[in-house]
Structures are given as structure tokens and as C-alpha cells.
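Because showing beats explaining, we think one record worth quoting, sequence and C-alpha cells together, and here it is:
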Amino acid sequence: MDVIKTLGWRKFCIIYENNDGLVRTQDILKNRTWQISLRQLPFSDDYRPMLKEAKSSGVTHVVLDVERKNIFQVLKQAQQIGMMTSYHNYFITSLDLHTVDLEDFRHGGTNITSLRLVDPDNPLVQRVIQDWVFGELRYGRAVEPTQTTTLQTEVALMYDAVQLFAKALDDLDRPRHIDVTPLECDGDFTWVHGNSLINYMKWVQVNGLTGLIKFDTEGFRRDVTLDIVELSKEGLERVGRWDPHTGANYTRTYSEVQQGIVDSLQNKTLVITSVLAAPYTMLRETSEQMTGNDRYEGFCVDLIAEISNILGFNFSIKIADDGQHGKFDAKLNRWNGMIGELLSQKADLAIGDLTITYEREQEVDFTMPWMNLGITILYRKPTKQPPNLFSFLSPLSLDVWLYMATAYLGVSLLLFVLARLSPYEWIASSFSCRDQEDRTLENQYSLINSLWFTMGSLLQQGTEQQPKAMSTRIVAGIWWFFTLIMISSYTANLAAFLTVERMESPIESAEDLAKQTKIKYGSLYGGSTWNFFSTSKLPTYQRMFSFMESQNPSVYTKSNEEGVKRVQKSDGQYAYMMESSSIEYITERYCDLTQVGGPLDSKSYGIALPPGQMLRPLTWFYSL
């Protein structure tokens, strides 16, 4: 379990031979953080049907629990059906993998890992094997060549047990003589030195073929260390150690890991899957007939070319069959797009505007991000409004104009009433000294004259009527001061409106989109942007996703290019949501488009690899 955790496996298959294998792997099966499938080897010698079924289900990581004598046969048949490639990883539970001939699998690139209790390079092991070979030859018995270089774990444990028993018996015999008496298994008599010998064996420590041998008070062996071995071109190599206190620890240095990866890529041709999306991967515009990788250009093409120059591998660019980035199809129970081609082993790398998401990381591995970005809104720039006959009303809002009209009528009526009540506003129209009774009085502030006086003051033109009473003069003064402020403000705003063209966008953020239904909006269907809205827990984005799902015809597109064209042709009635980096590229080339608002989230682009590949920890990516 410690080794599998260190290797970073998340999904694997356990292939076992009998029920003992289930007992050995029961702790692994209890771990619910892993996705584990079980398959038992058939009783016949033909394992290919079972292995083909495992391959068709997408199995790339295998825990193999079979007897030592059957390991080669299982691996050989797996190789025959194509399950011994660089995409596949095997962990073999047997401690005797070093005794199996793995010559046929050394150059296939398959990652085979196991544990080892006996180190063949241990001088003590080599000396014991040499003494054993000489002893057999002394009695005229032949020894097979393979037996002179390997030693089974069971044999080594038996040898150490006898050595421990002999040492304990010899040490007890030194201070006092120990007599050995015949005993019967069914009898009642026991050996008087038996308990002393057992207790001494619990206390004594011996360096044996399987390492340091010591026991606890219960009689169980403790502090056992195991070698972690992996198969390379030179054979099985120790890459780490396991002990019960610290778990699995790999001893390979960083430079050794990097050099091993670089060596494995030398002169190897990798299939690179991508999708056509400017400016990352594009078809080259030329009049000449292009073939191979020369057909494509873009940032991702330059990036993978630079990486290949550093690491020394060749590559072939392949556009995804369905042109999709990668989405899980619940109906077909499989991934499509670039992610699907990685899982089906049609490609070795996936590069493009491929967003690193949680769902994708559960299926494939990603390098460190090579670009950070977020979702923003692509929208058409507001166009210049045509000339309007009533554009002179634009400096003030409709509410202000209504308030001014109300104030105009109110002041006119107030002036009319006050002039009627005040005696100072009444003037004799004709005067005769002979007859005082023939004299008539007139008031200059009739209703029409009051409206005219107020209008003249508002337009700063003046009138012939001048107030004489104190009350009417106060009203007129207040009205004049009010008109002074309003006319000055109107004049300033009118000058700004005549000299500066105002083009306001109807939307400024995602919240503005969510509040209205006139302007439609959408995204690339099945992409990371669509997934962001479909899984968001924020009410605004949930409402936006519900709106997009309910539209007919659909507001989704099959490509970003389709979305850009739809925005251009919509005359401001459609907004398209996509990654900010792509929008920045588009707005630099199309002057009629613009980016609205800031990023809605934070995401990154990365290079995707099949799960379990050793390309992920490379530092060449940072050096670019």
C-alpha cells in the first residue's frame, strides 16, 4: 500500500490467482480512496481472454498476485495482446521477481515494480550460493546456471532460520553442556532446555540472507526492510527501500530520474493530439502543398517543437477526430476529444487550449500550467447612434426634464396667485380727476403672462412684466437663481455631448447578463467553460446556466470560431464566454469586438499525459 501511494496510483486492477491473493490484498481493497477492479486468472493456461477484457476496459495499472512460476507466462501473454507498453504499469506482489527471467520485457518500456527481501548483490548471499554450488559439485550433482545467480525467498528464510537456531543452540551450549534426549511426539515429557532456547532466539540478533533478524516478545519478526525494485533496460534495479517506520522511500536522485526519462525518450516518436484553435494550433496558410507537422502552426506547435529539441524525441501532430477538448459522455460511458484519445492510447500527449479541471485530473495527468487565465465575455462593441431630432434633450435625463416642467408650472401658478392677492400688483388702467368712480384696476400677471414671465426667465430672455410686490419679487428671485444653475449645467453638458461621442455598452459584467433576457449568451458545449457553469454553486452562474440550457435554438457552439462569428453577426444580441487569453487574441484582430468585465474564475492550461506516465515531473517545462 505504501508503494502504491508513493507511485500515485488512483485507479488500478488486481489480478489474482487464488483466494490467498485476496487475503494478501485485503487491506488494499478496504481503501476507498482508490478505484479498484478485481479479476481472477482462469484455471486454464490461456489468460488472453481475461487480459483482453481488462485491456478493453481501459486498465493501465495492474497489481499482479500470482505464484512465481506463473509470472513469466502471465506477462508474456499480456505482451502478446498489447498490455506491455509504456502506458502500462505493473506491481508484482511476489518477493521472488528477481528469480524470473525478464529479458523479453526489458526494452518494452513497461513500468514493472516489485518488492524484494533477498538482495542478490549482497556479499553474504553470493558467498552462500557459491558454497552451495561447490557442495553440490562435490557430490557430483549438477546445478542449473540460473540457480547460481538467484535465490528464492523461501530458501533464504529457511537458511536464516537454521542459522538462527544453530547460533542460539551453540551460545547456550557454551556456559553449560546441553544434552539432547529422545522425545516422543505423543509423550508427556518435554526437553528441559526448550523454553530457554526459544527465549534466547527471541533475544538474539543475526545478520542473515534476508537482512537483520530480530524478534519481539511475541515471537514475530520486526524491523524488516524490503528493497523496491523496478525493471530497466539493464534488468531489475533497486530504486528505494521500505521499512515499517517510514514507509516507502525512493533513493534515486532527481538527476537520475530526469536522466532516465530523457534516455527513454531518445529517438522516440510521440503522437501529439490537439484541436484547431487560434492562436494555439492552426492550419498554415500557404499556397504550397504541406504534409506532416508542416501543415500546422501556432503557439502550441512552437512549444512542443522546443520541448522535442531539448529532450531529443520526434513527434507527429494529430488533430482529435471529433475536434473536442475532452468531456465524459455518460451515455457512452467514455471520454471524447483529446482526453479520450489519451485514454484509448491513440496519443502520447495532448496540447492545446486544454484547461486543467478536477474531472480531467482524475483520468489523466497534467504538467505544471504553462498559462494562467480565466473566463471572460466576448461582446460586440457598441456602434455609433444615428442622429436624433431630439438629441438636444440628451444632456439631462427624462426625470430632470419632468421635474423642471413641474417646477415651471408650479412657479407660474404661485406667481399668478400672489399677484392676485397683493394690492401692489394692481394698476389703474385709466384715471380721471373728474370722476373717481370711472377708474379701473388691472393686474399685469394674468395666467398667460405668469407663464410667459417664468418662461422668459428660464430662457434668460426677460419680459416686460416686472414684479412690484415683495412676495412676487421673492418668488421671481428664487426662480431666477434656479434657472441660472440649471441653464449653466445644461450648457456644460450639451457642449460635452456635442464634442464627445458616447457609446455605452448595455452589459458591463456577468451580473448584467444574468439580469436580462434580451441579449443571448453561450459557450463552447462540453468545454471547461460549460463545465464551470454546470457545476457552479453560485446563484448568478446557476441562473445563467439554466438560461443557456433553456434556449431554443441553442446558444452553445461546436467551436470557438463559431462563437466569434456568431458575436460578429448578432448586432449586439449575443455574447460569447470563453478563456481570456483567446479573447485577447481575438480582440487584437477584430476591431469590432471587445472584452466585457473581468475574469469569472481562475484556471490554467497544461499538457495532458496518459495516467501514470513519468513525463509529468520533468523540469524542462520550467526552463522554457
Observations:
- Residues 510-605 form a domain with the D-Maltodextrin-Binding Protein; domain 2 fold (CATH 3.40.190.10).
